[in-house]
UniProtKB/TrEMBL annotation:
GO biological process: DNA-templated transcription
Highest classification ranks of the organism: Bacteria, Pseudomonadati, Pseudomonadota, Alphaproteobacteria, Acetobacterales
Name assigned to this protein: LysR family transcriptional regulator
SUPFAM superfamilies, per the entry: Periplasmic binding protein-like II, Winged helix' DNA-binding domain
Pfam name, any one: LysR_substrate
Keywords: DNA-binding, Transcription, Transcription regulation
UniProt superkingdom: Bacteria
GO molecular function: DNA-binding transcription factor activity; sequence-specific DNA binding
HTH lysR-type domain location: 5-62
Family named by the database record: Belongs to the LysR transcriptional regulatory family.
């Protein structure tokens, strides 16, 4: 180590480690990417070590970077606890990794409940959801469809949600009636691109027995699938709470063609008891329980 470390450099390092690129870190810190780059270079020179590997898609930490991250995050959390104690509210940044449907149609409208009494707190939402986000410390909380498989993580059931097949009234007027499960084979569906599924729990059509050849509109967005359905182009299997935002959609064979999935609330085990994480997890549990009927499609 050539000289003492500058805390400002460490803050920039933490932002890049969490954001994965200079531009994302710059937006978070309110500076341009060149400024971020200078601080990273300064830190690497001070430590006489390479902390990141530069790729086309962004910055990936080296082993030395990962070791430093563990130490810097500890410092950041301690600074946050001191601020919370002195100011009385939560502070710092909490990043939530969640499925698009949950993040966009449920969580986003309720974030204000947490921010209202915590002016020093920032909440980030990542909708490209993978458990690796927690493993690499890119997120603090993950909303997943499966429980954690490692004791490094703490998981609990957050709540169940039901899915149904939906169509627009216009679609039903223009196509043959759907009276039985067998009739569905003659209709076109929108669904996820199979190769992009990071969990089979998202293969809603497959779980319902809908043939793969019927899923002719494939994308990576539940919103895109719903909008294709709203346009009268096709059918789609949608979470009830998502479809509730388009009340004109009609459920197809709701008594027999239904599917239930479970959301899991996952955090890193060593951070479960921190004030910020505890507070946010409590809010999520409370809001999901309050809207249980919405998630189950009983409203």
């Amino acid at each position: 180590m050539k000289r003492g470390l500058d805390w400002r450099d460490l803050q920039y390092f933490l932002a890049v480690a969490r954001g994965g690129s200079l531009s994302v870190a710059g937006r978070q810190l309110g500076v341009d990417h060149a400024t971020v780059g200078r601080h990273i270079q300064s830190l690497e020179q001070a430590m006489d070590a390479s902390l990141f590997e530069r790729h086309l898609r962004g910055y990936a930490m080296t082993r030395q970077g990962e070791r430093l991250l563990a130490a810097v995050e500890g410092m950041d959390k301690e600074a946050g606890r001191i601020t919370e104690t002195s100011e009385g509210g939560l502070s710092g940044t909490v990043r939530i990794s969640a499925l698009e449907g949950f993040a966009n149609f449920f969580l986003a409208p309720r974030i204000g409940l947490l921010l209202a009494n915590n002016p020093g707190l920032t909440v980030e939402m990542e909708t490209i959801q993978q458990i690796v986000s927690l493993a690499r410390r890119h997120a603090d909380i993950a909303i997943t469809l499966t429980p954690p498989s490692s004791n490094r993580f703490a998981g609990e059931e957050l709540g169940e949600y039901n899915l149904f097949i939906y169509a627009s009234p216009d679609y039903l007027v223009r196509h043959a009636p759907i009276r039985t499960r067998e009739d569905l084979a003659e209709h076109m569906f929108a669904g996820y691109v199979d190769e992009l599924l990071f969990t089979r729990e998202l293969d809603y059509q497959g779980a319902m027995g809908i043939p793969a050849r019927a899923v002719r509109i494939q994308n990576s967005s539940i919103l895109a699938q719903m909008e294709a359905t709203c346009s009268g182009l096709c059918l789609a299997v949608l979470p009830a709470f998502v479809a509730a935002t388009r009340p004109h959609l009609v459920r197809i064979l709701p008594d027999t063609m239904t599917l239930r999935r479970t959301y899991w609330l996952v955090t890193r085990a060593d951070e479960r008891g921190t004030r910020r994480i505890h507070h946010l997890c409590a809010l999520l549990r409370r809001e999901v329980e309050k809207e249980r009927a919405l998630f189950l499609g009983e409203t």
